[in-house]
Amino acid sequence: MRDFLEAIRSGASGEDLANVPLPETYRAALVRKDETEMFAGMPSEEKDPRKSVHIEEVPIPELAPDEAYVAVMASAINFNTVWTSIFEPLPTFGFLQRLGKESRWGARHDLPYHVVGSDAAGVVIRVGSAVRNWKPGDRVVVHCNYVDDQDPSAHDDSMLASNQRIWGFESNFGGLADLSLVKANQLMPKPTHLSWEEAAANALCNSTSYRMLVGRHGAVMKQGDVVLIWGATGGLGGYAVQYVLNGGGIPVGVVSGPDKAEILRELGCEAVIDRKEKGYRFWSDDHTQDESEWRRLGKDIRALVGEDPNIVFEHPGRQTMGASVFVAARGGTIVTCAATSGYMIEYDNRHLWMKLKTIKSSHFANYKEAWEANRLIAKGKIQPILSMVYPLDQTGDAAYQVHHNLHEGKIGVLCLAPEEGLGIDDPEFRAAVGEDRITLFRRRGA
Ligand code: NDP
């Protein structure tokens, strides 16, 4: 893949790129099927991605007619790579096996290794015979909605497709590699004012937050809504705060620690709760929740903004869901897309039905939502939240940071890009958006 890097850096045309010979193998971050039991019996926090994620050369898979190869310049860590690397809640090889049974093309994915990663920015180097809108040389970002668009269940909202998958998590050949195999309909134009690693950090979390708050399938926030955002400087939360501010809402951001609180204020979120400082104990033991602690959180929110949240942006799951349902305003919505701290959820149903609240589920984003969310990045209306950058060789270390909540925003990974800061095609627009805004998390990160 070095030849592609040289060609891209020297400004080779699409035609030239299409003539660079493909190597037989490429460098990839992967987990191995024969190691899925390596952490058996250990508590989650001791399962170490640095031990399970390997960097290896793997063969280039065959290209289907509706697919493209992307020379990946940079990628990013998502929590799904943490799940894959600790084999929780299940090893992802089951997903690959199921995909393998679907078709001849699906069978390519069922391998004894899983190349992970659900974000990427790079350059198209080959397209299949049925690809019409993209060509070698196009500079792209990749969204992770992996759908067979010939299936009628995908036609209205592609997230409802019966065979909907997350690329690089439920499919193989993900973005944490020097090359990736994607469906052409996952490609989106790379925002011209961002570097490769800034561009690569957004698609998964940004699109997810867009659907949860802005798109018509989520909580559909309106001007003036108070929105409680858990993990407000995390991957999802860092975009959610920006969507609430852009849409005329009032964010109440929850974080752990003064540094994160400071970032949040700089982002424009005035109402900040440091959950560590407050020391909430929503669970008094493993089986019992403490309503007085929910009430204390509710009071803290009212003290800051004078009202209860119309929307709660929920993803920590078991630890917070009881509180989230309790603090939401009468008629409010709790929109949830995850359960980091446990998926067996408990809340007091009386607070839900008596106050006519709604729990709304959400998952990634359909094509349209992903495209709209990317457009907002490209127009400089939503900023990347990249805080740290690792080389591909240290993907396990990067995933470890996210697993242990040692990061803010997003962690980028340099794949083919040899250093940070490359790939900015429109420095004038970058200056107009503002270097300080684009690099807020990076300046604060390690
Ligand atoms: P991050 O780790 O970047 O951020 C999550 C933040 O949540 C943390 O930084 C932390 O912030 C906060 N948090 C973690 N545990 C708790 C807890 N017990 N109580 C309160 N707050 C907590 O992860 P992401 O934002 O990228 O992802 C969050 C979850 O969403 C993951 O489980 C991920 O798999 C899932 N996800 C789902 C998607 C979907 O499409 N369904 C898409 C993207 C992510 P702090 O310590 O500052 O409070």
Give the structure's gist in a few sentences:
This protein has 19 helices and 20 strands.
- Tell me which ligands are bound: NADPH dihydro-nicotinamide-adenine-dinucleotide phosphate
Overall mean pLDDT: 97
Shape: globular
Indicate the proportion of strand residues.
15-25%
Q: Class by helix and strand content?
A: alpha/beta
Helix content: 25-40%
**Rg calculated over all Cα atoms:** 21 Å
How far do the termini sit from each other?
29 Å
Uncertain stretches: none
Major sheet characteristics: 7 strands, mixed
Number of strands: 20
Counting DSSP H or I runs of 4 or more residues, the number of helices is 19
Structural write-up:
With 446 residues, the protein is of the alpha/beta class. The strands form five sheets. Strands 3, 5, 6, 9, 10, 19 and 20 form a seven-stranded mixed beta sheet that branches. Strand 12 (250-255), helix 10 and strand 13 form a beta-alpha-beta unit. 32% of the residues lie in helices and 21% in strands. The mean pLDDT is 97.
